[in-house]
Design goal:
Helices cover about 75% and strands about 0% of the residues. With about 500 residues, it is mainly α.
C-alpha cells in the first residue's frame, strides 16, 4: 500500500517540526516587528507618516492575496518546492528590505516579502497536520499555535529592542540566517506527499485576477478606512465596490469551475464552516486588541514602550502554557468544551479591561491579560484541530490557506471596527463631557480641554473593550453546532502503513 506519509521513514517528526516552525515564526513576527520602527524608518528615508505606513500595509496586502492560493500553488509546484521557494523569496527580500535607500523601494520589497511570508503560515500548518498521526494532532496544533499566536506579541518587543540598541535594517537582516537554515532544512527534510496531484493545464488568469484585486481592495479598505474617513473618500468607495464585485464574481466562478483556483468545497464540512466563523471572531479579538492595547497602555496609562511589552507578556506566556496543556489533553476531552471555555475566558477578561481608569497600573492589567491569554490558548488548539478534522488529507493545503485567510480577515475587520469605534466614541464622549464643563477657579482652558480629552478617550477605550467582550461571549453558543470528530482509522492507517 502506497504511503503518502513516506517522509516519516526519511526524517524524524521533530526535524520536520523545527523546519516548518522556523519559517512560521519568522513570517509571523515580521508582520508586527516593523510597526514599532515605522517612525524611525520614516525619519531615515525622508518619508511622511502616510508613506511609511505602507511598509506595514503592503506586507499584509500581499499576505492575504497568497494565503487562499496555498492549495493551488502546492498542487502546481509540489509541497517541498513551494515551501522552499516561499522561504527563498522571504529571505532574499528581507535582505533587500534592509538595503533599501528609498521608501518606494522598501514598500516594493515588503510586498514581495509578504508574498513569501503569506505562504509560510498555511503551508506550515498543513505540513504539521499531515506529519503527526491523528492521535497527536492536538499536540501538533499546540506547537503550531505557539508560533502563530505568541509571535505577534513578541514582534513589537523585539523590534523595539533592535531599534533602541541597533539600526532598523537589522529588523530585516535578522531573518537571513534563519531563512537560510530553514531553506536548507526544507530541502533535506520536507517531502511532497504522494496524494498531492500536480495540476495539469494553464493558469486561471481570470480567477487569479479577480481574487487578487478583490482581496487587495478589501484589505486596503479595512486598513485605510478609518484614516481616510471611510466613505467620505472616493478611493475607499471605489475600492469597496471593486472588492464587492470581484469577490462575488470570483465565488460564482469558483463554484462553477471543475478545477477551481480555491476549493470552496471545504465549507461543506460543518465543523470547518462553524470553525471558520469562530476563527473570524478570534481574529477580530486577537488582532484588534493587539493594536488597541499598546495604544491604550501608552496613551492612557503612560506606559513606556518597555512597560507596554511587559504588560503584554503575561498574555503571551499564558497562551503558550494553555496551548501545551490543551494539546496534551486534546484526545481526552471534548474540544467543544475547551473552545467554549476559551471564548468565555477571553470575553470575560476583555470585559474586565473595560473597568480600568487612568490611574490603573501594571497589576491592574496583569490579571485580565493573563486570563485573556489563557483563554486564547484554550481556544486555538481545539478550534484548529476540529475545523480540519473532517477535511481529506489531499485537501488540507487548500483548507489551511482558506482558514488562515479567514482568521487574517477577521483581524483586519477587528482593527478597522475597533479603531473606528474608539474615534467615534471619543467624539461622542467629548461632546457630552464638554457640555457640562464650566471654567472655575481660573483653571486654564487648555488644562480643562486636556482633562476632557483624557476622560473621553478613556470612556471610548472602556467601551471598545466591552464590545469585544460581548462579541466573544455571544459567540460561545456556536460551538454547539460543531460536530465532535470521531477517530478516523483510515487516516491512521494511511499515516502508518508502509509504502
Amino acid at each position: 500500500m502506497a504511503n503518502p506519509f513516506r517522509h516519516r521513514e526519511e526524517a524524524p517528526v521533530g526535524l520536520i517540526t523545527v523546519t516548518v516552525m522556523l519559517g512560521l515564526i519568522m513570517a509571523i513576527i515580521d508582520s508586527t516587528i516593523v510597526n514599532v520602527a515605522l517612525n524611525t524608518i520614516g525619519g531615515n528615508l525622508g518619508a511622511s507618516t502616510d508613506e511609511v505606513a505602507w511598509v506595514a500595509t503592503g506586507y499584509i496586502l500581499a499576505n492575504v492575496i497568497v494565503m487562499p492560493l496555498n492549495g493551488w500553488l502546492t498542487a502546481l509546484l509540489g509541497r517541498k518546492r513551494f515551501y522552499a521557494i516561499s522561504l527563498a523569496v522571504f529571505t532574499i527580500t528581507s535582505f533587500l528590505c534592509g538595503t533599501a535607500h528609498s521608501i518606494g523601494m522598501l514598500i516594493f520589497y515588503r510586498v514581495l516579502q509578504g508574498l513569501g511570508g503569506g505562504a509560510l503560515q498555511p503551508t506550515a500548518q498543513a505540513i504539521m497536520f499531515e506529519t503527526y498521526p491523528a492521535e497527536r494532532r492536538g499536540q501538533a496544533m499546540a506547537i503550531f499555535g505557539i508560533g502563530a499566536m505568541v509571535g505577534p506579541a513578541i514582534g513589537p518587543t523585539l523590534g523595539g529592542w533592535i531599534v533602541d540598541n541597533a539600526t532598523w535594517p537589522l529588523i530585516f537582516f535578522i531573518n537571513i540566517p534563519i531563512g537560510v537554515l530553514a531553506f536548507l532544512m526544507t530541502l533535506a527534510y520536507i517531502p511532497t506527499p504522494k496524494f498531492i496531484v500536480r495540476i495539469k493545464g494553464g493558469i486561471d488568469w481570470i480567477g487569479l485576477g479577480l481574487l487578487s484585486s478583490g482581496l487587495a481592495s478589501l484589505q486596503y479598505v479595512l486598513e485605510r478606512g478609518e484614516h481616510d474617513d471611510w466613505f467620505s473618500s472616493d478611493t475607499i468607495v471605489v475600492l469597496a465596490i471593486v472588492a464587492a464585485v470581484t469577490l462575488t464574481w470570483f465565488v460564482v466562478k469558483t463554484l462553477r469551475d471543475a478545477a477551481p483556483l480555491v476549493d470552496l468545497a471545504v465549507f461543506k464540512f460543518r465543523s470547518f464552516t462553524i470553525g471558520s466563523i469562530i476563527a473570524v471572531i478570534m481574529g477580530f479579538g486577537l488582532f484588534g486588541t493587539s493594536l488597541i492595547l499598546p495604544l491604550f497602555f501608552q496613551q492612557m496609562l503612560n506606559f513606556t514602550a518597555f512597560d507596554t511589552g511587559m504588560a503584554l507578556l503575561p498574555g503571551a506566556l499564558a497562551t503558550a502554557v494553555a496551548m501545551m496543556v490543551i494539546g496534551r489533553l486534546a484526545n481526552r476531552i471534548d474540544g467543544r468544551y475547551s473552545i467554549a471555555i476559551g471564548l468565555a475566558l477571553f470575553g470575560w477578561a476583555t470585559w474586565l479591561l473595560g473597568d480600568l481608569n487612568a490611574q490603573a497600573g501594571y497589576w491592574d492589567v496583569f490579571w485580565p491579560r493573563l486570563i485573556q491569554g489563557f483563554g486564547l490558548g484554550a481556544l486555538f488548539v481545539p478550534l484548529t484541530t476540529m475545523s480540519l478534522a473532517d477535511v481529506p488529507v489531499q485537501e488540507l493545503a487548500g483548507a489551511t490557506g482558506v482558514f488562515t485567510l479567514i482568521r487574517q480577515l477577521g483581524g483586519s475587520f477587528g482593527i478597522a471596527i475597533l479603531t473606528t469605534l474608539v474615534a467615534h466614541e471619543s467624539a461622542v464622549a467629548w461632546n457630552v463631557l464638554a457640555s457640562g464643563v464650566t471654567q472655575t477657579q481660573g483653571m486654564p482652558v487648555q488644562t480643562l480641554t486636556g482633562m476632557v480629552d483624557q476622560q473621553a478617550t478613556m470612556i471610548a477605550y472602556d467601551y471598545v473593550f466591552r464590545v469585544v467582550g460581548i462579541v466573544f461571549l455571544l459567540a460561545t453558543p456556536l460551538v454547539l453546532f460543531m460536530r465532535r470528530p470521531k477517530p478516523n482509522p483510515k487516516i491512521a492507517e494511511l499515516a502508518l502503513a508502509a509504502e
